Amino acid sequence: METIQKDFEWNGKVALITGIGGQDGSYLAEFLLSKGYKVRGMIRRSSYPNTKRIDHLDIYDDVYGKTPESPFYLLYGDLSDSTSIRNILEEVQPDEVYNLASQSHVSVSFNSPESTLNFNAIGPLRILEAIRNMKLSCKYYQASSSEMYGISPPPQNEETPMIPQSPYGISKLAAFHLTRMYRNAYGLYATNGILFNHESPRRGVNFVTRKITRGLAYILTGRKEKLSLGNLDAKRDWGYAKEYVEAMWLMLQQDKPDDYVIGTKESHTVKEFVEEAFNLVNLNWKDFVEILDRYKRPAEVPTLLADSSKAERVLGWKPKTKFKDLVKIMVAADLKEAMQETGYLHVNDMNMPDDFYIEKGKELAKGIKLKRKRI
């Protein structure tokens, strides 16, 4: 995790982040704290806390506790509960609201369409309606998704027709239009960030990119023999989540609210991601990957490719980390974690550059190839 400094100089602004426990929420919290924001995060209460990505921010508790002066603290709330949303807005009085909370897995949305629509479409409506009724002057960011484009041919920009192919995509499209409606009808500063696929070592383990890099790490450390995947032909525009949160912030710094596509302008298949990951440690992916129909979706989105020219022109934002570097970052992080868990690393090996863990992976791969030759 990032090193967080206890020293804090407030810039006078307060930000509320829903879904702060997720990949994007954790990176955004760190980014805003570095900008001098006081950050308040909304999380759902669960019997097993899901705060691993933000536990390091508890450093502020030692100094401030949960007080108005604290740079960071969490509040319990739920997008399905209008009262909790209103209570949090009343307490926090935010200058900026970043709605990142959602049921965020496309495949899961086919199994749980009703709850997906409730959280992803009606949830944002509850926030927007609360902001309107409370007459708050805050700026609102809605986390939209490239899955809204569905089968529209690439490249996709802000004007491309949206034809989603999943309950997830449909739910995000509903929230997208609600955000625009509240902007146009009621004058709210409400912005949609249409982020194409963005990944990192903090990505959930049930997403395909993390499934690949973690699966590779488990194969190398002897915890798995095979990696099971679905459709390898789907093409996605993959960027680095840590960089994408800056784009979210930049959207809310503009004089007028608008909608922006964020991506790398490059598209790669799932197969290419697998191949790149395994090539980093000199393994042939075909020896370890199996294709199972149960991981294929009822309706597929073939190709997503961002035309983020508007963001480059208006926001001055461009991605710095491209495809190969992103794969390397994720492979190295999962190798580090897997080797730590299985005792392959010494204490002095825990804060080394990514290349160190990749080289360790290559050493383990040699052992696997020798073993396979003997069989």
Please summarize what this structure is.
This protein has 375 residues and is of the alpha/beta class.
Explain what the structure shows.
The protein has 375 residues and is of the alpha/beta class. It folds into 2 domains: 213 residues, 3-Layer(aba) Sandwich (Rossmann fold), CATH 3.40.50; 117 residues, UDP-galactose 4-epimerase, domain 1 (Alpha-Beta Complex). The protein has 11 helices and 13 strands. It has a 7-stranded parallel β-sheet, with helices on both faces. Strand 1, helix 1 and strand 2 form a beta-alpha-beta unit. Helix 6 runs parallel beside helix 8. The radius of gyration is 21 Å and the shape is globular. The two termini are 41 Å apart. The model has no long low-confidence stretch (mean pLDDT 93).
Give the SSE layout.
Blueprint: E1 14-18, H1 23-34, E2 38-43, E3 72-76, H2 82-92, E4 96-99, H3 106-111, H4 113-133, E5 139-145, H5 167-186, E6 189-195, E7 198-199, H6 208-220, E8 227-229, E9 235-236, E10 239-240, H7 241-251, E11 259-262, E12 268-269, H8 270-279, E13 289-291, H9 309-315, H10 323-341, H11 354-374
Parallel strand pairs: 1-2, 1-4, 2-3, 4-5, 5-6, 6-11, 7-10, 8-13
Antiparallel strand pairs: 9-12
Helix pairs in contact: 1-7, 2-4, 4-5, 6-8, 6-10, 10-11
